[in-house]
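Much of the work behind modern protein science is quiet bookkeeping, done one molecule at a time. Below is the pair of lines this work produces for a single protein:

***
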Amino acid sequence: MKPKEIVYDAAFEKKFEKYKKQLTESERKRFKKQLEIFKEDIFDKRLNTHKLKGNLSDYYAFSISYSDRIVFKILDDGSIYLIEIGSHDICY
């Protein structure tokens, strides 16, 4: 599924910028590649996109590295709303 649009708020953008600054050059390349794949197909197998459970059952996550992910929600109009970025401990 190709997203109609990808949206996020100022809080996500701040976390996103802080996250990117911590990456090495090779991690940045992998991160950029994962985002490019996500923009084409949010359920591409290389992303390991999965529905979350419990309190986060309305949300999905995809892997950006072995230990990190982005949490998002699919909106009714087909847009993607990015919620959180970081380790698997986020949002809990």
